[in-house]
């Protein structure tokens, strides 16, 4: 059983970041949820390098460069943090933040249905 227990302040911060992202930027967290980025990094069980993330998402190789761009936006939005590997700016590992825990599909407090509903056509 995975523990999704988060402190109340982390839940409040995560909700704030999710709503801010949805209202102002709209697409990054929506695309992250659609592609399963949050769940892929969580299921990896440790910090996830970009090549493994791209492989796990099963996207066409011609679009792989777009994942790095999307991840930069998600990092700046506070949904991920990074750690450089071997002091190389191009080789990083991605960590989930408390805010991104609210975008996991199996989390009982998941905002995923709301994020998908808010941007999908009716």
Automatic annotation (TrEMBL):
Name of the protein in its database record: O-methyltransferase dimerisation domain-containing protein
Q: Which organism is it from?
A: Stylosanthes scabra
Entry's PROSITE patterns? SAM_OMT_II
The family database entries (Pfam families) matched by this protein are listed as:
Dimerisation (PF08100)
Residue intervals of the O-methyltransferase dimerisation domain: 33-105
């Amino acid at each position: 059983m995975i523990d999704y227990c988060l402190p109340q302040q982390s839940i409040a911060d995560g909700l704030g970041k999710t709503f801010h992202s949805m209202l102002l930027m709209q697409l990054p967290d929506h695309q992250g949820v659609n592609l399963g980025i949050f769940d892929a990094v969580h299921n990896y069980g440790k910090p996830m390098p970009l090549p493994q993330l791209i492989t796990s998402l099963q996207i066409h190789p011609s679009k792989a460069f777009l994942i790095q761009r999307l991840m930069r936006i998600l990092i700046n939005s506070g949904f991920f943090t990074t750690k450089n590997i071997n002091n190389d700016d191009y080789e990083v590992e991605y960590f989930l933040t408390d805010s991104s825990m609210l975008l996991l599909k199996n989390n009982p407090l998941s905002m995923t249905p709301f994020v998908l509903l808010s941007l999908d056509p009716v």
